[in-house]
Amino acid sequence: MTIAWLASLALRDASIADILWGPGLAMMGWMAACYSARIGLTGWISLGLATIWALRLGTYLLFRRLGSGREDHRYTSIRSRFGPSFSLLSLVAVFWLQALLLWIVSWPLQVAVLAQSGNTLAVAGWALILAGIIIETVADRQLSAFRAIVHNAGRVLDSGLWRWSRHPNYFGDFLIWWGFFLTGLAAGASWWTIASPVLMSALLLHFSGVGLMEETIPDRRPAYKDYIERTGAFVLWPPAKR
């Protein structure tokens, strides 16, 4: 992350931290694998799912960044607020903070990678991870297709998975973290590794995810207020009848 920070200074783009989030988790899993003399089938399945998710998310965010041609507006706003001091601030508050979060949230994955045998709980965890990957992928593709149509600027996407949730991509991510927790638990992880999915759930619901997004969307898109009244914020659920 420190190397990524140096790159962000050269590019003047702190949003590369977001692109590295998924690959960073997979890297933690692969590093754990390097400390094992032998990885069983259970470990390879967990590591494979983490890698698939990481490559999918990282690639999606990379191409979205290349398509926009500019730094994510959240970082641009902070940069303008702090001026020259943002460079050092971003090292601690963005890149090192993300490194710390990756270490914490990767605890269940690190244990799951070292597992030599699976059980019903591990299968349930894999099912949650796979479901999360599918939901997140479909939601992101639907959003990208919607944004690619010029006359949709300022409009609200309320079809597909977005008809059932205002943030289906975050819900998919939510399932993935709890899935990794179950696979870690099945492999013998301590109960306190629940800090991983609890922390990510809090971030998704109240801080970097739903909470942050919905602070500004209603102001930028008037139709979003009506969308809120008929569509749940997170869990996939049939919309309210009007």
Our estimate of the beta-strand percent is: under 5%
How many strands in all? 0
Q: How many domains, as an integer?
A: 1
- State the secondary-structure class: mainly alpha
Question: Span from first to last CA?
Answer: 48 Å
Largest beta-sheet characterization:
none
The helix count comes to 13
Please state the overall shape, judged from the principal axes of the Cα atoms.
globular
Instruction: Give the low-confidence spans.
Output: none
Helix content bin: 55-70%
**Which series of helices and strands comes N to C?**
HHHHHHHHHHHHH
Provide the gyration radius in Å.
Answer: 19 Å
Mean pLDDT: 90
Provide a descriptive summary of the structure in words.
By secondary structure, the chain is mainly α. The chain has one domain. It is built from 13 helices and no strands. The protein has helices at residues 2-11, 16-19, 21-34, 41-68, 73-82, 86-105, 107-113, 120-147, 168-186, 195-206, 210-213, 217-220, 224-230. The chain is globular. The termini are far apart. The model has no long low-confidence stretch (mean pLDDT 90).
In short:
By secondary structure, the chain is mainly alpha-helical. The protein has helices spanning 2-11, 16-19, 21-34, 41-68, 73-82, 86-105, 107-113, 120-147, 168-186, 195-206, 210-213, 217-220, 224-230. Helix 1 (2-11) packs antiparallel against helix 6 (86-105), helix 3 (21-34) packs across helix 6 (86-105) and helix 9 (168-186) runs antiparallel to helix 10.
